[in-house]
Amino acid sequence: MVEDGAVPDDATDNLASFQATLDAVAAAGGGIALVPAGGRFFWRGTLTVPHRVILRGLGTCSALRARPGVNNPAVRFAPGAHRGGLESLVLVGDAHRGLGIDLSGAQFLRLRDFEVWTFGVGLLMSDGRTSFAGYNHVADFEVNSCWTGVRAWEHCNQGSIREGRIHFCRNNGKGVAIDIDAATALTMAHVAVEDFDLGVRIRGRTSVSLRDVYYEADVPRSGLVQGAWMDIRPDRGSIVRMDNSHAGVSRSVVMGGSLEDAVTTDERSHVFDGAKRHHAAAPERNLVENGDFHRADGLTIPGWGLNFAPDLAENTDDFVTGGRSYDVRQNGNPNDGIRTAFVVPETTDYVTVMVRYKNVSSTSLLFRVVSGGNAALYVDPVPPSRDWRVAAITVAVDQSAAGAVHAILTADQEGAAGQIRVDELWAVVGATAAPPRAHAHRIEFLPEPVTVVERAALTGDATFGPTDLTSLPGLGGAPRGVVGAVLALRGSATPGGGNGGFLDPSGIGAALPRALRPFVEEPSSRQRWRLDIVFDRLEHDRQVALRSTSFVDGIHAFDDAMAVTYRVDVVGWVLPS
Q: Which of 53, 115, 175, 419 lies in the 20 to 30 Å Cα band around 88?
């Protein structure tokens, strides 16, 4: 660098000198461009590291300062199969302008033992536009005092970030330590994330693993609010793993999208004050758990009362929660909803209430948790959709309230007759807790099919049932919590004796129009699955996934010159995960 005219006085623009050195190393076939120790080298604009070149310093003694300009990186790597990297130096920005290190479009990079300070974005794994940044690995790093610590957007493929620290990502409430959107196969492990407005934000269809990550935001600096742990709303088909994490954070913003299908937090993970994810919380900390909104007498929900006068209806047609969730609709008052109350121990400082819900048609739903004079609100940040989401609401416990906590779920504050669907509410001691694992259905197949009904020698039209699967005896009985079944409809047809007494199998051509259709039907949705048979002694079968625990079966015949034998078998059970 110095031989090409670079001056480490923190004032001279050294961009041309640095670029000349890097280009010379590249022209020689690649290698190391060494940043000497002593002083600080400054430049304006963007320094581009060519293919097969490693920009290396001598540790913290090799200091760089850059002013790249808005939306431009201080250091970028030439796109393509780069196979270079950056090692052992310190890069400082200027008043949060621009980006620190940009890996967009480059592959096979190795970055280790470095520090990045005071940029808008400290480390950019991919900008979401340039295709593609793959097989890049970052280790032994610190990103500090950047509005966004690490950003990994679309086209970030097969990358890893390990053994490092992301610190002080504050920007008037808009700072984000880890920002992920549509990254593929990204792994982050053994990283400390401290002092932020938001710890981790995840969007898009992504597959990411965050393992052994420490989050801490409960010691705010003067004038700064406490940070929030996560705002995770991945698209369907995502995989988000959060394993063995420790979170000392009092707030979560929203956890939704396909999160309940995507996120796992194993039993080793620890969150604030000992609360862990649902069903992993210690029993003594699990204050209340409305496991499902079952209707006790057809009119009320056990443990819940009305807040003003909403319209209520037990949900029966949701594949995942039919029979276990409840629809609440605004009926003229903005505060129409449902409410419940529970008591927390006297020693509790915070309590976190989580609600699993679906915004069916509400423009302004509002959930409120109240302890004496303290109240916490949750406003849905996402428009109505078909997705299930999890709201987390944390309130400081008012010691004068004798431990009483009230949770109120209102459907629509705008008076627009909006509707929500609620499936579960639970509460734990502590200021945050992770969401439950999948409440999507899972299927457990039986070792052998269990025959539920058998019908034989039917002619004409007939309907039977309903058959209640939960009342099956013995080993064929439904397991606890079952929400549906996988059924097999099996049958065969033969000539019958009616309509002229057509009995001769040799007249197969005359029998072809005479179709028989055994069926199974879901009583709630009236959906019917048929098995079409045209004069065939071979057994036919069809499998269907039933969304309820009862069904109606029967037969529809083109005419009565045919007969059928059919049966309905249970081959598997559908249960919530």
A: 175
